[in-house]
Each structure stands twice: as structure tokens, then as C-alpha cells.
Amino acid sequence: MNLLNGTRAKWVVYGLEIFLVYILQSTPALIPEIFGEKPMMVVVCVVSIALFEGDVTGMWFGLGAGLLLDTGSIAPFGFYGLILLVICFGCGTLVMYLMRNNMVTSLILGFIAVSVVSVVQWLCFASPQSANDAGFFVIHILLPRCIYSTALMPLFYYFNRAITTRLYDE
């Protein structure tokens, strides 16, 4: 009996990928900032995993990556876990039943995922006085973060596609 069959090997590689991306994202001054914003690489990473693995497996990887993000965040524990759980389940379901899994779909879903995480984060943690600064938030924070993160989506898409094709289910 092989301890690391195709499915388990994929899951181990995905787990290592998420952990390494989290380390890259969390290390100060390692990833350059564009317009003062860093990319949300963990979000686009787990969205690309959900595109290849489907709804339930993508949901579990989204939960794990979200809980990993929660460990380094000031948000209540489980905040990012819940958000990424829902986003990855939705992305996996859309690709399974409604959309084709291709680069355009991954770019669209990656942009939407980063937008949703950023907007929910802003709505939950911004002060009531910052509601007047919604235009500033959209132009100076949301758009650079979403564009920068979406620009990295092809890297994760092709890496996870290679993992899926190389380590097929046995």
C-alpha cells in the first residue's frame, strides 16, 4: 500500500504551497508594495486550488488557509477562515457546474475573491467616520490590491494545474 497516493500527495503539496505563500506574504519587505499595497497571495492561491479540486475540497483548503491568516491577524479568530471557506466553496461550485476552468475564469474569480475579502474586512473593521472615505478606499486601497493580486493569479493557476495533472487520483 502506497502511503502517498495521488490524492494525498496533492493535498500535501497544496498544504505546503499555502504555507510557503503565507510565509512569503507575511514577511515584511519581501514582496514589493505597489501604491502602498501588498497582494493577497493566500487568497488567490486557495481560489486556484478550489478551481481544480472542486467545492468541498476547495472549501477545506479555504478554511485552513483562512485559519492560517487568522493567526497573524488582529481580526477575531475564524474571521478569514469563514470568509475563505465560503469563497472557495463558491468558486469550486461555480467551476464544477457553471463555468469552465480556464485562465479567464481564474482571473475573474480571483479578482472577485480579493475584492470580497477586502470589502468585508473594511466593513467589519473600519470606523464609522471612515464611511465618508469609501471613495478613497476603493481607489487607493481596493483597486491596487485587487489588480496586484490578480496579476499573480496565472502563477498559481499554472502551478496548481501542473500539480493536478501530475498527481492524478489513483
What is the average per-residue confidence, as pLDDT, rounded to a whole number?
Answer: 89
User: Sheet with the most strands?
Assistant: none
The fraction of residues assigned to DSSP E strands is: under 5%
Shape: globular
* H and E string: HHHHHHH
State Rg: 16 Å
First and last CA, distance:
12 Å
The unreliable regions are: none
Number of strands: 0
| Number of H- or I-type helical stretches | 7
Fraction of residues in H or I helices: over 70%
What structural category do the secondary elements indicate?
Answer: mainly alpha
Topology:
Blueprint (H helix, E strand, L loop, with lengths): L5 H21 L14 H13 L1 H17 L7 H19 L5 H23 L8 H18 L1 H14 L4
Helix pairs in contact: 1-2, 1-3, 2-3, 2-4, 2-5, 2-7, 3-4, 4-5, 5-6
Care to describe what's here?
By secondary structure, the protein is mainly alpha-helical. Helices cover 74% and strands 0% of the residues. It has seven helices and no strands. Helix 2 runs antiparallel to helix 3 (55-71) and helix 2 (41-53) runs parallel beside helix 4. The longest helix is centred in the last third of the chain and has 23 residues, at 103-125. The chain is globular, with a radius of gyration of 16 Å. The chain starts with 5 loop residues before the first helix and ends with a helix.
